[in-house]
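Field: sequence (string)
Field: structure_tokens (string)

Example rows 1 and 2, in order.
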Amino acid sequence: MKAELTPSLWRDGWYRFAKHTHSPNFGPRPANTSIDLMVVHSISLPPGQYGGPEIEALFTNTLDWDAHPYFEQIRGAEVSAHFVIRRDGALIQFVSCDDRAWHAGRSSYQGRDNCNDFSVGIEIEGLEGQLFEDAQYETLSSLCAAIAQHYQVHHIAGHEHVSPVRKQDPGAGFDWLFLQHSLGWPDQSFPLKN
């Protein structure tokens, strides 16, 4: 009797359980870079509105800049993240984790600059400082565990921790302690002792 092979969770940096929507906004990581950090962000477009196509449009350079007055503030932005987690927990991947997504900007973590070089960026649909959904934490926890297993990543921080002067997301509404308990990771894996 022939044994069935279990499909791999990863192929060329693409996660099997995510919808794949390719962003042109990425580049190669520096040679010999160890991917050892996950950065959690929050995003909603327009701010406070959920479920529309605007995030995907932004990350694929197809956003109609004239569709909402807020978009004038970000006109021409070429950004991406590796993943977006929707309010219902749906997961979209835009950039292979083997590549460098454009999510953190000017940043530093534990004395290392340019976090995009060595991190995986995860956007959670929501407004900075506000609460997130249980389904999002469930998806995030599963995703973080899969990334950690494949890339040997054991550190996670918010955008607010890697770019504290510029950014405040995901903010006070994000439950770091819940995520830590879900993952079972030690305090030193997180930016602040909970």
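Row 2 begins here:
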Amino acid sequence: MIKKNIVAIIGSNNNRSQTKAITENILNELIKLDQAYSYKGIFLGELNLKYCIGCQKCFNDGFCELDKLDDMVLIREYMEKADIILLASPVYANDVSGIMKTFIDRISYQFHLLSFSGKLGFTLTVADHSGSEKVIEYLDHLSIHLGIKNLSNYSFIYINDSMYEKPTLIAKDMLRKIQGNYGYSNYYLEYLFRMYKSETLPKDAVNFENVSHQNELKFWSQNWIKNTDSFQEFAAKKRSINYDLYEK
């Protein structure tokens, strides 16, 4: 049996992270319900992850120079191989954790490329009592701009939720939504695809040499994208060609 692969990005630095424990409980419960799934937890606090330095070379070159110095390339590889991506973060000062923001900064050049199209997604926000609404909205927004079809956003609030009951409820809901899903697209993803396809290239550009974000221009100007009519078709093509996306 070929299993569907779930990758969970867990944004915590705490060795006794409750976000990690809840995420693992949810995914273990999901696998108990359906053994057609497997998962890999990426606990950011255990990895060497350098801060983005804002050089913007990634927007022009299509890769981050810091990937040569830390573990970020491994995270990208796991995400590329995933069928489903779960973004999980605790709430720190009404926002995502610092290490989650570092991860987000390092993938920022991939947002305008819809890099993880053809994948389903979920988000999980863990809070003591407040601040989850803003983090839920932020993670949902990021998922969509990565090209992920986000099926649901979950929260775990300590003053309200039980460690014994809530993970099982979330796991059942995740499985139900995965099984009831059709395709990789929705209205907003179709909108983003049309926008990037039509607006990324300057109308009067003869070449890309003096234009910022050259990698985006190179990507969206490819013939295989020009000949693609919808995000659903775009996502299906990306899965079929296994991320070897730039025409030689």
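free_text_note (row 2): Residues 187-240 form one domain.
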